Amino acid sequence: QVQLVESGGGLVQPGGSLRLSCTASASIFSFTHMGWYRQAPGKQPELVGRIFKTGSPYYPESMEGRFTISRDNAKNTVYLQMSSLKSEDTAVYYCNAFEFGATGDVWGQGTQVTVSS
Q: How far separated are the first and last CA of the chain, in Å rounded?
């Protein structure tokens, strides 16, 4: 089973930027899509965005504009660039990978992002 490890979380001031990384233990090329979810305290998980095998990204309307997902297949890594961060972006961010068939969904352990002055 491929393992996903997130990094790059931490404390950032409102208006700041942060880049999260998700590195897989094996090739990510076979995954139909990879993406990021987040879960704030007391709230349901929500999709931040995903990037397909073709390289095309998808963002829910509520996430468009401040979040950018990219992938580097050679490094088996997916990135989430976040800008103009707000306090409501505070959450645990989880990397996700999906492949049709037996693999299904794979999740990372999450990384905490705290936006506060």
A: 39
